[in-house]
């Protein structure tokens, strides 16, 4: 970790200096949302102080400048993901909306009664419920890739699920509950063998691993701004042009039209076809500041730093008697889920909170996964690029204190 | 003792705790002493929504007063239920349905628990009052 200036990085995040109940904040709920660097906070203020105007329609100066900044952000995201075209980048409210868009529009164009959609047993409800709704509407069937006890996808079972009736495979790149990094390259290759497109829920990946959509050859990729140090309420859907062009619009309204008469409306081109209404202009423009921040540090460096920290944390936690890890996949990223003896995760969360340590407790919006593992939930510590060894040491002390209070 | 006398006693008890740990150790202890619900009532109908953890609550009406029994899968939640039962159990449906529970604020539980957890606490109280109201209308 020699070249990674953690103190300089931490200084970029004003909230990390906060105290909670007179104790320094230890923020380990990054899987839920990350904190924002000063550059993103400044960008938000700058936008409203100097640039605020509606995009894509005004002929006046401010509107032109806002539009330029808005479209520059799209280009930045294109470079960030290395997509072939900038119109393959659709701005949404977040991962959930991105996935719902594909379920609604790809579903309408390509999924029929009797068809099948494949998801996995470790999906977030956001990558499960939209497909359930689609299948119920259309009379299609949802198939589930089972997982092993370690929390890895059963790839043999996945191979057996593939057939010509399958119209889409939708899986998480990285599990939000367990931290498992799924073998997405293999999944995509296998699915493409049957001409089945693949959607990756990258909500827990885009801030932790470098992503190149062309190299992955992924068909759809969804993620949220607020989990990658950007603003809340902005997200991205990447989709290959060949699919997006064949999909009908998501919502009707302004911006998405080419010509409207009472008899017939013709739709705008990509990406505007999928961006009805005034978009989250502030969110789009300031997401660009978050991308700059990630690029400055470099995702390869972030990955290396976080990976070493995860190993340190895993070993430190395993030294605590009565603690067991939930999710022990070989390939993991930035998430540690655990339980202490028979103690309910809620109890651990309450005590850790009193110590100024923010973790997540519960089912993490993956109820079927918790059912599969026969547990009510877990305590989840999720790391970020600003998490330190000291944070982990404080967590370990906190868990020991919680254990001594709750196990007695 | 009236409901308010019990509340005032609890406020006095909690004033002795000089740090959060002692307070939570007391709550955990209360959880262990909770009058446990009979297993036959530990099912869906008696489950309270709103808590991250599960709470089962049963009301028994005899000799003009309601006695509550409960359980939870989380010990701190169990302790919080225990507090409510300490205050409300053994009183008439009328007293329970009209009780103003000011002690929660005063012992610093509401402000120290996050909204979702507090919602759990509040839905617990709401359920106890609903039982009382239902029984009151039956009398």
Provide key terms for this protein.
heterodimer, A: 408 residues, alpha/beta, Aspartate Aminotransferase, domain 1, Aspartate Aminotransferase, domain 2, 2 domains, seven-stranded mixed β-sheet, four-stranded antiparallel β-sheet, 14 helices, 17% strand, B: 139 residues, alpha+beta, Sufe protein. Chain: A, three-stranded antiparallel β-sheet, 6 helices, 3 strands, globular
What does this structure look like?
The complex is a heterodimer of chains A (408) and B (139). Chain A is of the alpha/beta class and 408 residues long. Chain A has 14 helices and 17 strands. Chain A is 40% helix and 17% strand. Chain A has a 7-stranded mixed beta sheet with strand order 4-10-9-8-7-5-6, sandwiched between helices. Chain A has a 4-stranded antiparallel beta sheet with strand order 13-14-17-16, covered by helices on one side. In chain A, helix 5 links the parallel strand 5 and strand 6. In chain A, helix 2 runs antiparallel to helix 10, helix 11 (299-318) packs parallel to helix 14 (389-406) and helix 12 (345-354) packs across helix 14. Chain A is globular and about 75 Å long. The mean pLDDT of chain A is 96. By secondary structure, chain B is an alpha+beta fold. Chain B has 6 helices and 3 strands, in the order H-H-E-E-E-H-H-H-H. Classes of the chains: A alpha/beta (408), B alpha+beta (139). Chain A binds chain B through residues 21, 343-344, 346-347, 350-351, 353-354, 361-362, 376-377, 405-406, and chain B through 20-21, 24-25, 28, 52-54, 73-77, 112-114, 117.
């Amino acid at each position: 970790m020699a070249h990674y200036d953690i103190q300089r990085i931490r200084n970029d995040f004003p909230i990390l200096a906060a105290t909670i109940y007179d104790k320094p904040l230890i923020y380990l709920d990054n899987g839920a949302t990350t904190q924002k660097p000063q550059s993103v906070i400044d960008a938000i203020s700058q936008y409203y102080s100097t640039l605020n105007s509606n995009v894509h329609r005004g002929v006046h100066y401010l509107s032109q400048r806002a539009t330029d900044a808005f479209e520059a952000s799209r280009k930045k995201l294109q470079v960030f993901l290395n997509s072939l075209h900038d119109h393959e980048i659709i701005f949404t409210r977040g991962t959930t909306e991105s996935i719902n868009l594909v379920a609604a529009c790809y579903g309408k164009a390509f999924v029929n009664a009797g068809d099948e959609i494949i998801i996995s047993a470790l999906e977030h409800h956001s990558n499960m419920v939209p497909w359930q709704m689609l299948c119920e509407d259309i009379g299609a069937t949802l198939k589930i890739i089972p997982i092993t006890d370690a929390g890895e996808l059963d790839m043999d079972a996945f191979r057996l699920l593939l057939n010509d009736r399958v119209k889409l495979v939708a899986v998480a790149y990285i599990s939000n509950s367990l931290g498992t990094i799924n073998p997405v390259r293999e999944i995509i290759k296998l699915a493409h063998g049957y001409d089945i497109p693949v959607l990756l829920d990258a909500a827990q990946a885009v801030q932790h691993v470098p992503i190149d959509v062309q190299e992955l050859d992924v068909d759809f990729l969804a993620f949220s701004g607020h989990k990658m140090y950007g603003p809340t309420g902005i997200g991205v859907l990447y989709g290959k042009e060949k699919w997006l062009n064949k999909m009908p619009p998501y919502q009707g309204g302004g911006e998405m039209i080419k010509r409207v008469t009472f008899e017939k409306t013709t739709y705008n081109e990509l990406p505007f076809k999928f961006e009805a209404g005034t978009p989250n202009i502030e969110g789009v423009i300031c997401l660009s500041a978050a991308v700059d921040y990630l690029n400055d540090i470099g995702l390869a460096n972030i990955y290396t730093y976080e990976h070493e920290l995860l190993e340190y944390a895993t070993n430190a936690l395993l030294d605590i008697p009565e603690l067991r890890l939930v999710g022990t996949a070989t390939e993991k990223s930035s998430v540690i889920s655990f339980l202490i003896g028979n103690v309910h995760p809620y109890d651990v969360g309450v005590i850790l909170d009193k110590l100024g340590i923010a973790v997540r407790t519960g089912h993490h919006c993956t109820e079927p996964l918790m059912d599969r593992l026969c547990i009510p939930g877990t305590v989840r510590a999720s790391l970020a690029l600003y998490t330190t060894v000291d944070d982990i040491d404080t967590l370990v002390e906190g868990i020991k204190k919680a254990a001594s209070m709750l196990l007695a | 003792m009236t409901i308010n006398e019990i509340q005032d006693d609890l406020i006095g008890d909690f004033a002795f705790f000089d740090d959060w740990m002692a307070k939570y150790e007391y709550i955990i202890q209360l959880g262990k002493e909770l009058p446990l619900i009979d297993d036959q009532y530990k099912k869906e109908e008696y489950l309270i929504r709103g808590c991250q953890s599960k709470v089962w609550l049963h009301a028994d009406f005899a000799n003009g007063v309601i006695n509550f029994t409960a359980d939870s899968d989380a010990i701190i939640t169990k302790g919080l239920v225990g507090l409510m039962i300490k205050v409300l159990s053994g009183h008439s449906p009328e007293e329970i349905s009209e009780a103003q529970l000011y002690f929660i604020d005063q012992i610093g539980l509401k402000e120290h628990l996050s909204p979702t957890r507090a919602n759990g606490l509040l839905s617990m109280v709401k359920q106890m009052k609903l039982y009382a109201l239902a029984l009151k209308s039956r009398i």
